[in-house]
Design a protein that fits this description.
4 helices; 7 strands; alpha+beta; single chain; 7-stranded mixed β-sheet; Aminopeptidase; 148 residues
């Protein structure tokens, strides 16, 4: 498995992966995903294995030294095989290089596997947001303080 930068020709594959990873109302439309990826302060990493895209992560630099993980998606067959960890490590390293002291993300309140994954990476739950997702699901805002 290797990580590489996003190419415009990846968008359809990333959109399909996002739809497979998240239910309607949580997954992004193709247009939304494209806007996040093309944001001037965004960076997207693509995980590839044997010439196939197996996951991706989109992050942005927000105000006041805060990086935001917009989404991290890994196809089911590649979960628990370090793809997510490598994507998160790349984003966290980049955030530090951009002068960010904090990385934040949102995850569904009922997505216990994701919450456990983020806690293992040093993230803590900050606050619960009711009706965060369009399907009325609540989310946890989680954050990690970067060293240095």
């Amino acid at each position: 498995m290797e990580l590489r930068p996003f190419k415009p020709s990846d968008l359809d594959a990333l959109y399909a992966i996002d739809r497979a990873c998240f239910p309607p109302g949580v997954s992004y439309s193709r247009e939304e995903l494209g806007r996040f990826i093309e944001h001037r302060k965004a960076r997207t990493w693509v995980a590839e294995a044997d010439g196939e895209i197996i996951g991706f992560l989109v992050a942005t630099v927000e105000r006041d030294g805060v990086a935001h993980i917009v989404t991290v998606d890994v196809v089911r067959e590649w979960r628990r095989r370090a793809a997510g960890s490598r994507l998160m490590a790349a984003a966290e390293s980049w955030a530090g290089e951009q002068g960010c002291a904090l990385v934040v993300l949102e995850t569904a309140e009922d997505n216990l596997a994701a919450q456990a994954f983020y806690r293992r990476r040093g993230y803590s739950r900050l606050r619960r947001v009711a009706n965060y997702y369009p399907n009325h699901r609540a989310a946890w805002i989680m954050a990690k303080q970067l060293e240095g």
